[in-house]
Amino acid sequence: MKTEILKVLRESGGYVSGQQLCDSFGVSRTAVWKVIEQLKKEGYEIEAVRSRGYRLVESPDVMGQAELESLIRTRWAGRPVVYASETDSTNIQAKALGEKGASHGTLFVADRQTAGKGRRGRSWESPAGTSIYMTVLLRPGFLPSRAPMLTLVMALSVAEGITGETGLLAQIKWPNDIVVNRKKVCGILTEMSAEVDYINYVVTGAGINVNTECFPREIAGTATSLYIEGGARVRRAKLAARIMERYEENYETFLAAEDLSGLKSAYNRLLVNRGKEVRILEPGNEYEAVASGINDTGELIVTARDGSRRAIFAGEVSVRGVYGYV
């Protein structure tokens, strides 16, 4: 009931009478009062005026289940929300509940991770109260070979969500890093449980540096946050909700063709390396080329210095800018 009352207060834009809340949810005034008091303890500023009712004055930057569910306006993406104030990793928890039958579209969110993981097993710093750590679980009907493209679907959705919510230009460093002003603000990791020709479930996680004020010296040259770049605090739950809205639309576009043909143009417009020299790091081989964008299956198309065009698969190589990270 807390989610529903919070949603009514948020959407009304004014006062909502206690009796109206009682009638809407079939509960007593005491039950409504208890929910209001609970919301106040969580940091919501709610004004109560006799004969007028309750009014939501201000929402805190919290990532609780009620806050997220009251903001997410999708049909299935991010529904339901499973929230933890602290967990090892949202991907780990998503996979554990995936094994127990969690439904398609379930969103797992934590305020802090103790074992955050990035691409190729790298650790991901996950302090509390500043960033977004979330993972969406899917149960698609397409072949397992299509699943790696979901990383790019999420990358596009995160970039669009950041720009839509903050006004900052968020770009993509192929395949799965989101950058603002040429520094990384987000990493994305997709994992899957599958048989040879059948997907049990897929989880795609995103870790986004939102309100982080500073970074350790060793990564400060390549990492940043939305707060550092924009100079303003960002409500994390609103951003997460915006990303889920973009993800639902982008996923359904992907699903229609089971490839990235419908998203390729949008992705390439945000590709920070497009038309620029990059360094391709393959096992035992390194060369420079010019990136031109992705193809329908998400491979990066590059033109080497000998004039040959090549399709680079994300699982095999790394791509860097010739003069640095981007």
Describe this structure in words.
Its EC number is 6.3.4.15. This is Bifunctional ligase/repressor BirA. GO terms for molecular function: ATP binding; biotin--[biotin carboxyl-carrier protein] ligase activity; DNA binding; transferase activity. It is an enzyme of class 6 (ligase). With 326 residues, the protein is an alpha+beta fold. The chain folds into three domains: 2-58, Orthogonal Bundle (Arc Repressor Mutant, subunit A), CATH 1.10.10; 65-269, BirA Bifunctional Protein, domain 2 (2-Layer Sandwich), CATH 3.30.930.10; 277-321, Roll (SH3 type barrels). It has helices at residues 2-12, 18-25, 29-41, 65-71, 90-99, 150-166, 226-230, 236-257, 264-269; strands at 45-49, 53-58, 81-84, 107-110, 132-138, 170-173, 177-180, 183-194, 199-208, 277-282, 285-294, 300-304, 309-312, 318-321.
Task: Summarize the structure in short.
By secondary structure, the chain is an alpha+beta fold. It has helices at residues 2-12, 18-25, 29-41, 65-71, 90-99, 150-166, 226-230, 236-257, 264-269, and strands at residues 45-49, 53-58, 81-84, 107-110, 132-138, 170-173, 177-180, 183-194, 199-208, 277-282, 285-294, 300-304, 309-312, 318-321. Helix content is 30%, strand content 26%.
Termini separation: 47 Å
**Shape field:** elongated
Largest β-sheet summary: 7 strands, mixed
CATH fold topology of the largest domain: BirA Bifunctional Protein, domain 2
**Arrangement of strands in the largest sheet:** 3-4-5-9-8-7-6
Q: What is the H-and-E element order?
A: HHHEEHEHEEHEEEEHHHEEEEE
Count of distinct strands: 14
Write down the Rg.
21 Å
Question: Which parts are unreliable, with pLDDT below 50 for 5 consecutive residues or more?
Answer: none
Mean pLDDT: 92
For this structure, what is the CATH homologous superfamily of the largest domain? Answer: Bira Bifunctional Protein, Domain 2
Count of structural domains: 3
Share of residues in helices: 25-40%
The level 1 CATH classification of the largest domain is Alpha Beta
CATH architecture of the largest domain: 2-Layer Sandwich
**Helix count, DSSP H or I runs of 4 or more residues:** 9
Structural class: alpha+beta
Q: Hey, roughly how much beta strand do the residues contain? A: 25-35%
